[in-house]
Amino acid sequence: MKVSYFPGCTLKNKAKDLDMYAYKSAEALGVTLEEIENWQCCGGVFTTANDEVATKLSSVRALKYAGEKEQPLVTVCSACHNVIKQTNYAMQTNSQFADKVNRYMAADGTYNGETQVYHYLEMLRDLVGFDTLKEKVVNTLKGKKIAAYYGCLLLRPNSVMRMDDPENPTIMEDFIRALGADAVVYAKRNECCGGYISVESPESAKRNSNAIIENAKAAGAEMIITACPLCKYNLVKNGADIPVVYFTELLAEALGVKEDTNA
Amino acid sequence: MQVNEYKPLIVAFCCNWCSYAGADLAGNNRLAYPADVKIIRVPCSCRVNPMFILRAFQRGADGVIICGCHPGDCHYTSGNYFTRRRMAALFSMLDFLGIEKERTRVEWVSAAEGAKFAATMNDFVATVTALGENKRLEDLRCKK
Amino acid sequence: MQKITREQLIQKASELLENGTVSAVLGWGIGEFDYDVTPTVFSTVEELRNGFVFNDFCGANFSKYLVKKTDKIEGKILVFLKPCDTYSFNQLLTEHRFDREKVYAVGIPCEGMADIAKVKAISGDGIAAIGSNGDKLTVTTLYADEPVVIAANDVLAERCINCKSKKHVAYDELMGEEGEVIESNRFDEVARLEAMTADERFAFWQNELSRCIRCNACRDACPACTCEKCVFDNPNSGVENKSPANEFEEKLFHIIRAYHVAGRCTDCGECSRVCPQNIPLHLLNRKFIKDMNDFYGEYQAGAEVGSRAPLVDYTTEDLEPGEVFDRRENNA
Amino acid sequence: MQRVGVFVCWCGSNIAGTVDVEAVSEALKSEPGVVFSTNYQYMCSQAGQDMIKQAVKEHNLTGIVVCSCSPRMHEATFRKTAAAAGLNPYMVEIANIREQCSWVHKDMLTGTEKAIILGKAAIAKVNLNAPLIPGESPVTKRALVIGGGIAGIQTALDIADAGFPVDIVEKKPTIGGKMAQLDKTFPTLDCAACILTPKMVDVAQNEKIRIFSYSEVTEVSGFVGNFEVTIKKNARYVKEDICTGCGACVEKCPMKRIPNEFNLGMDNRPAIYIPFAQAVPKVATIDPNACNMLKNGKCGVCSKVCAAGAIDYTQKDEYINEKYGAIVVATGFNPISMDKFDEFAYNQSKDVITSLEFERLTNAAGPSAGKLLRPSDGKHPHTIVFVQCVGSRCESCAEKGKEYCSKICCMYTAKHAMLTRDKYPDTEVYVFYIDVRTPGKNFDEFYRRAVEEYGVKYIKGMVGKVVPEGDKLKVQASDLIANKQLHIDADLVVLAAAIEPDKSARPLATMLTASMDTNDFFTEAHPKLRPVESPTAGVFLSGACQGPKDIPETVSQAGAAASKVIGLLAKDKLTGNPCVANSNELMCNGCSSCANVCPYGAITYEDKEFRMPDRTTKIRRVASVNPAVCQGCGACTVACPSGAMDLKGFANLQIMAEVDAICK
Amino acid sequence: MHNNKYLQEEIIRISGVNPSKCMRCGKCSATCPAYDEMEYHPHQFVNMVECGDIEPLLNSKSLYKCLSCFACIDRCPRGVEPAKVVEAVRLTAIRKQGANHMTADDIPAIIEEDTPQQLLVSAFRKYTK
Fold first, then answer.
1. Would the CB atoms of D638 and B55 count as touching at under 8 Å?
2. CB contact at 8 A, D461 and E30
3. Which DSSP helix (H) or strand (E) runs through C85?
C-alpha cells in the first residue's frame, strides 16, 4: 500500500523521531509513505474565520497533490492533521470558500475536497487494521502501563475530525493494547495541554500540563504517548516525571525497528 | 430584482394526514412561504393520479409537488410506497421527454414538520422561479 | 424467411377444426396487398384455404383479439402465437381478460417480420406483389420493369432486430423448435436518448410527437390497451378527447397511455408497427421497462401468469423519486 | 350544477388582517353555481352558523363553501351546520384561507388573490359533490392497553371500572414500569411503591383486566372499533398459572451473576428471577440468555426445587389473536444513553450515575438497601453534584441529546437534593442548572424548600468536565452569577439524563399507522383540543409516549384516554367514513390492479352478466369495494388504468376541477 | 452599553456563528482550560457579540488566551461555537495596522533549544495577521 505523506515542519526538525519512526514502522507494516513534493507548512493552527483563504492554500495544495496520485493523505503531527482535515472539510462543504480557493489555485486546476485524509493512527486502525498490527509485533510491551494523550487537535471539532468519540476516545488505547501493553484510561486525555499559550502565558500551559500528568499518574500510568510535538514539548517542559514519547517511537519499538533507526 | 417579477404557479398535493397538517402547522407558527403555492388536499399521496399532474401542467402550472408521509408512516400503511414508485417512474419519463426534472418533486413531510413544509415550499418555489415559465410540456408538439 | 409455411399452418388449423378441438381459427387474413395482412376469424377449412396467409408481414399480435373473440364463439378458438405474442397472451391472462379454457394456443416459431416502410424505402412505392424466396424478398412494383430483390434481414422490423425472446411462454401445442430468451440490445436506443441533454431529448420528441395525428392506431393495436372503455373515450373521465384540442394533448395522450400500460406492456412493439407516422412509440414503453428494471429489479411482463407488476408492488427500501436522477448521473 | 353559498370568515383579524374578505366574497359571487356570497367575523360562532342555515333556506342552497381556517379545525362544525339546515353534510367544502393563506403570507394583495383562488377551487369542487351517506360498522367492546406502567395501569383500571374488558400487554415480566423503580415522588414525597403497588394489585384482581406480561404486540390490522391484534407471549419457561411466586427457584439458581435490569445493573440477579417483591404477576421468569439449562441442557435446579412443578424448559413463544374496539398506547419513556456524554465520565467512573440509578440507590429495595453509598467503594458520599439538562435542550441538529426539555428533571433533582440533605445533613449538595423549571401545583414551593430549608446549593451554570482522580470526582463547572469557574471535588455525580420514548414505540406506530414526531413521541390529533387521541381513529395516547410527563400529568392523561375509550366502546355502531372507493362496473376490466394495491383487502371480484348493445349478454369479471372495509386512501384509483375506480369525496373529476380552478 | 452594529455584523460574518442560539448554560466557560487567564470568558464573548458590545472584547487580553482547543465547540449543547467568535474578534483586532500581538522581535526571548517549530508557527498564526 502506498499513501501520500505530509510530515510538517516540526517533524523535520525538533520532532525528527516522530517522523523517522513513522517511516520505519510503516515500512515494517507494508505501507510506503510517499512524501508530498515541495510540501509547505500547514500553518500550525486552522483559522476558523470564513474569510481566511491564503493561510489555507498550502494545505489545499498538499491535498490536491495526494488526490492526483489517487492516494489517501496521511499525517502524523496532530496539528497538521487538524489543519489539513479542517481545510479539506471546508473545501467539501463551503462552496464560497472552495470557489475563492480555486481562483487562487487556477493555475494548478481545481480541487473540491476529494482526497481522504487519515491520521497515522487512523491509517493503522482503518487501512492496516489493529489485528494485523498485533500480528506484526515483535517486542511485546506486555505489562507496561501506558496512557494515551490525545490533546485537543486529534478529536475536535468532532463534526469535522470524526476520528473517534471525542469524549471517550479509544483509538490510541486500542493501539496501545495492540502493542501488548496495558492502556491507562484517564479523563484528562482529551483536555488541552496549553498549546501555543506557552508563548503568551507559560504558567497557564504549566497548570494545564501538570493537571494532565497528575491525572494520568493517578490512573496508574508509567508512560504517556502522544502524536503532537507541541503536546510533548509542553508536558516535558513542565516537568513530567514519567516518560512522554511519540506513539511512533513506541510502535517502532514494538515492531522491532527502533534500533535500526538509531543505527 | 427585476421589475416584472415572474411568479410561478405551483400546485401542491398534500396528504391529509401529514403534509396538509404540516402546512397547517407552518401556518400556526407563521412560517412564511410564497403565495404561489396552492395546496390541494388529498386523503393520501397515493391518491395523486399522474393525470392530475399532467393536467396541472397542461393548464399552466409551472411546478407540481407531492407531499406525503415519511416512508413507513403512511396512515394507510402502504400508500406512500406506491406513490414513491409511481412518481419515480413518471418523473423519469418526463425527464426522458426533455421536460425539466426540477418542475416535479416528491417530499415527505410529517404533521409535526411545519418548518420543513415551509422550507420545502420556499426551496421549490425558488427552483421553479429560476427555471421560469413552463413551456416544454405545452410546446412539445409545435416545432419551432 | 419464416421456417414455418402457410401450408403447415393451414394443415394444423384444418386438423383441429375437423377433429372438433376448436370451432374457429384466429389467423392472418389476406388483404388488399401482400403486405397488408388483417387478423381474421376462420370457421371452415375452405375459408382457411381461400383467405389464410402467412408471410413476412404477419406481425399482428393476436392476443388482444382473444378478449373479444372468445366471447363471440362457441367452443374453443385456435390462435397462432409467435414467441413475442405469448407474453401478451400471459399478461392478459394475469389480468383475467379472457378465459384460458376457450383458447387452443399453437406456438409457432418466428424468424422476424419485415417492416413495410423499410421495403418501400428500397423498392419505391406502388408495390404490386411481394414474393418470398429463401432469405430474399422479391418485390414487384408498378413502376419498375424488374422486380427488386431485397435481403429479408435488411428490412427486418425494429422490434425483430431487437427481439427479446424466441421462447414461447405459453401454448397448448408447439410447432417447430423451441427457442431461447435472447440477450437483446433493445434498451440501447433508450440509453442513447438518456445520454443526451434534456434539450436534445426535448428536440427529439418534439420532432417525433409533432407528427402524431391521433389516429389511435397505437392504442387500438396494443394488447395492453384492452379497457372496456378507454379514459380518452370516456366523457366522464375528465380527460376525454378523441382528437387533440391543443398542443399539449398528444403528449398527455402518449404519456398517459405509456403510464397506463407501464408494468403491463410486454414490449411487443405493436404500437410502433401500426403507427402510420412511424413514431417510435415503443421507446416510451421501453423507457418505463428499463427504469423499472433498474429501480426495482428485472421484470418481464407476461413471463409468467399471475406475476405482480412493479407499479402495483413496493418494498420499504425503494429509491426516492429524487434519487432517480442522482442515480443516473452517478452511473454516467 | 349546485346552488352554492359562499361564506368567508374573518376569523377576527386572523384572516381579515391579511386577506380582504370583502373582496373575496365579492369576487367569488360570479363563480359558476354561486348564488350567494357573504363574509362574517366568526363563521364558526353560533351567529355565523345561523347565518349559513338562514342562507340555505333563503337561497335554496345545495352546496356550501366556507372560506375559513383549516378543515382539520372546523370541517366537522360546518358539516353539522349543513346537516342542521337540511343539507347532506358532505355538500360542504372548506377553503383554507387561514393556516395556508393569511397566516403564511404577509401582503394583503397576494393574500387576497390567493384566497380568491382557493375559494374558486373549493367552489369548483363542491359543484361536483354528491350527497354521501356513511356506512356503519360494529364495535368490539374490548380495549387493548399497550404498556403496563402507571399510564397503562390507570387507563386499564378506568376502562374496566366502566365495565369493559381490557387487556394490558407489557413487554417486561411485570407491570409497574418506571414508577416501580422510583423511591419517593414529588412534590409530596409519598413512597412510589406505597401508592403504585395497590393499583397493581387492583389490576391483578380486576376480573375485567387480563395481563399479558413478558409479551409484545406484533401485528395490528383493522380499523376503529374493529382492530385485530396479534400478541406474542414470550416463553418465560415458567407456567404462569401454576407458579406461586414463592421464590425457591430464585434462591437456588446457581447462575447468580446476571446484571439486574430492575436495579439498572447496579447489582445481580439469578437466571431465574422475579423482578421485585411486589411484581404483578408474581411469577418467575427464566432469562434464556443466562440459563444453563436452556443454553446447554445442564442444570435443572429450579425444576427440582419447584414444589408446584411450574418450570417448563420446553415452553415456546405463543401467539394470541384478539379483537379490540380501541387501542391505548402507553409505552412510556427511558433515560437516554450517557455514552455520548463522557465529558461527565459516566463510562469512566462508577460514581457518576444517572438520576434513575440514584433512585435505586436510595430505594429501600435497591442494591444498597436504601443507604446512599457510592457504587465504587460503598462509602458514604460527602459531596454530591447534580447536573441538570444532560442531553435535554440540545440543538435540533446536535449529534447528541434531544431538542426538548425533559420536564421532570428539575423536580426530581430537587427531590433528590432535598432527600439527601434530609437524611444526610453532613452532605454538601450542589445542583448545576440552566433554568429551574417548576410550573405545577406546589412545585416551585418544593424547589424553594430545597434551597431555603435544606440548604441545597443551586448554581446557575453547567458542568464542563468531570475528572475522576483518586477517589474523587473533580468537577469543573461554571458559576454564571459569580462569573467564576468552579472546581469541586465530589464523591458522587448525578446526571439528570434526558428522557426519550421507549424504542418499541417506533415499530408500534408503524403497525398502528399512528403518526410520530421527529423525536418519536406519538403525535396527538390536536395539540390543544384532542391531546389524548392519535390522528388514527380508535388509537389513544396515555403518558410519556406522547411527550415528557410527570406522574400527576400521566395519571390525568391516562384517565382522559380511558374516558375517550369508554365513549367509543359505549357505542354499538360507528358511522364510517363515506369517502370510500367505488368501482364503475361498466368500465371495470377486472384486471386486479386495484386489489393488488389495496392495503385492506377491501376489493373483491365477481363475475357479472352484462347486456351488450347487440342484445347479447356477456359475463365479465368486475371489482367491487366493501365500503365497511375501505378506508379511502385512493391507491386503487390510480392503479386502475380504465378509470373505473374512483373515490367518493375526492373523485377524479373533483380533483381535476380543483386543479383547473387553481391553474386558470 | 455601546452597540456597535458594524463590528457586530462583521464578527458574525467572519465567524459564521449565530450568537442568538446561545441559551446561557455556561458550559463553554465550564469547560474552558484558559478560563482563569481570561477577563472575558467564552460565554461572555457570545453574549457581548449578541449585544453588540464589541469594543471591550477588542481591547481585552482574553483574545490571546484562547487555546483554540475547541472544547467549547464540541460541548456546547446548542451548537453555538464560541471559539469561532473569539477567533473572529481576535482577527478583527489584529487585522488593524500595527496591531500584531507578537512580532519577530519577541522570538529570541521565547526560543529555547527544544522549542518546536510548531509552537512558533502556531503562535505567529494566532497572534499576527
1. no
2. yes
3. helix C83-94
The x, y and z cell numbers of residue D600, run together, are 385492506
Q: Tell me whether D462 touches chain E (CB under 8 Å).
A: yes
Inter-chain contact C238–D656, Cβ cutoff 8 Å? yes
* CA dist., res. D490 & res. D376, Å (int): 13
Residues in chain A: 263
Kindly state whether D410 is in contact with chain E, defined as any CB-CB distance less than 8 angstroms. Answer: no
D465 touches chain A (CB under 8 A): yes
Query: What nine digits make up the cell of D309?
Result: 412443578
Helix axes A95-104, A57-68, angle to 10 degrees: 80
If one counts the domains in chain B, the total is 1
Give the closest-approach CA distance of C116 to chain B in angstroms: 26
The matching CATH number, chosen from 1.20.1050.140, 2.40.100.20, 1.10.760.10, 3.30.1300.10, for A2-120 is 1.20.1050.140
How does strand D326-329 pair with strand D352-354? unpaired
Round to whole Å and give the CA distance between A114 and A125.
Answer: 21
Query: Which contacts of A159-162 are long-range, i.e. CB under 8 A and separated by 24 or more positions?
Result: A159/D399, A160/A85, A160/A86, A160/A89, A161/A82, A161/A85, A161/A86
Of B30, B34, B42, the CB nearest to D634: B42
SS (H, E, C) D500-527: EECCCHHHHHHHHCCCECCCCCECCCEC
Assign C24 to helix, strand or coil: strand
Compute chain C's Rg from CA coordinates.
21
Handedness of CA C44, C49, C52, C54 (dihedral sign): positive
Contact D663 B60 (CB under 8 A): yes
What ipTM does the predicted assembly reach? 0.73
Residues of D in contact with E18 (CB under 8 A): none
Check which CATH number belongs to the domain holding B59 and give it: 3.40.50
Show pLDDT as tens, one digit a residue, over chain C (332 residues). 577 889 999 999 999 999 999 999 999 998 888 888 889 999 999 999 999 999 889 989 999 999 988 888 889 999 999 999 999 999 999 999 999 999 999 999 998 999 998 999 998 888 888 888 778 888 988 888 888 899 988 999 999 999 999 999 999 999 988 889 988 899 999 999 999 998 999 889 888 888 888 889 999 999 999 999 999 888 888 887 766 655 566 677 899 999 999 999 999 999 999 999 999 999 999 999 999 999 999 999 999 999 999 999 999 889 999 888 877 666 54
Query: Is E5-96 a domain of CATH 1.10.1060.10?
Result: yes
Chain C closest-CA separation from residue B96 CA (Å): 6
Instruction: Name the grid cell of D389.
Output: 439538562
> Chain A: nearest CA to E120, how far in angstroms?
8
Domains and CATH numbers, chain D: 4-126 (3.40.50), 143-234+317-332+502-569 (3.50.50.60), 248-305 (no CATH), 334-500 (3.50.50.60), 581-648 (3.30.70.3270)
| B81 touches D at CB < 8 Å | no
DSSP-derived letter for residue C320 is: P
Q: Does D487 touch chain A (CB under 8 A)?
A: no
**CB contact (8 A) between residue B73 and residue D510:** yes
Name the residue ranges covered by the structural domains of chain A: 2-120, 131-262
- Give yes or no for C226 touching D (CB within 8 A): yes
Class of domain A131-262: alpha beta
- Establish whether chain D is in contact with chain C, requiring a minimum of 3 CB pairs below 8 angstroms: yes
Domain assignment of residue B14, given as a range: 10-137
The answer to whether E70 contacts A204, with C-beta atoms less than 8 Å apart, is no
B124 CB within 8 Å of a chain D CB: no
Q: Where are chain C's structural domains?
A: 1-113+164-184, 116-155, 185-332
Size of interface A-D (CB pairs under 8 A): 32
Residues of D with Cβ-Cβ distance to E32 under 8 angstroms: 464, 485
